Amino acid sequence: MKKLLILCLTILAVFSCSDDADDLIAVCDSVTNISSNTITSNSAVITWNTVDTSIEYTIEYGISGFALGSGTTISESNTDTQLINLQANTTYDVYIQTVCNSGNISLHTDVYSFTTALPNVATEFKPVLSEMNLFVGNLENLQITPLAFEYNLNTTLFSDYAHKQRIIALPEGTSMEFDGDGLPIFPDHTVIAKTFYYNTDERDLSLGRTIIETRILIKLNGSWETGDYKWNEEQTDAVLDLAGSTLPITWIDASGSSNATTYKIPSNTDCFTCHNNNNDIIPIGPKLRSMNFEINGVNQLEQFISNQQLTGLSSSSSVRALPNWEDTSLPLETRARAYMDINCAHCHIPGGTCADESTLNLAFETPLEESNIVEQSVVIDYRVSFYSEGISMPFIGTTMRHTEGLNLIQEYMNTL
Length: 416
What we know:
Distance between the termini: 136 Å
Strand content: 25-35%
């Protein structure tokens, strides 16, 4: 009798439980295979897989490391969504929940992360430098975007002892094309930028620097356009300034001497004066012969070739090299001609701004007997021996004598 009673109770319990089974709620499954595509500098498309496409999803996202509940939340009935108004070159975290109904929501998925693209370098002059996208991070650090690259010159133009950072940004999938020892052929939408700054104390670079200006050339429809950005006192940005201005600047040089000058930021008219050749604006510095030298043991042109930034040239050995005027192991004439090339020849060559006023042709490769240097040696000596705006040489672009350059030129003139 006792065994029969236990059996009856067991059967009753089984049938009672089977009635409750109809009230059980199915588990709301989490989505799987989250991925991203069509990533730009400010947007991305997020996709995922799901078991039931008739339900909805809650997507929460934010800059990597954000706390759940503090991000941006959107609802979606499809299995993809576009995230917009994102920050460029920034990593974002994404979490997704499946909403089977208001009372049945899945757990959050594991975090899914993606990084937005770098913004393209602007190919038109923006009101402020930060919008040109030439740099990443804090602008004052002058950290070049990976979409551009730095270049240097073996012998440099004197600009009141200012330091310069030089960069080139080529359109994606393009390159500079070899066209002899001079300027390469730059594709349309190339941007060339040169930033001028002074270290506070050359003996201790940790003391910082003062950035003055960033000059920019943009090639559009086969022609170059110029623009100049003047940096603010806070060193947080620079404003497009085509009128030119002056700025007092002080610094301590490597010998510990204090220096001061009233730095002159050129106007757009000044830029045309120096960059003009046959009434066309052209770059001055990035000639292949001026970039054909080693930096930290690696030839710069070879690096450009390896990076496919320069095409049409298999070896730097095919390009003449402009000597470094500061290399005292070179002959005096070689050094002096190299100095005059980079500091004077953009005006004193056929087609240059001074071509109609001077018989000089100061390009380094011009034979001495065709340069008129000997015939004009007295005038050259005089015009570089002092500074007076509009009279001394260089005509513009500096506000003081370049002591080292002056000594070199005068020593050379004395041998003629």
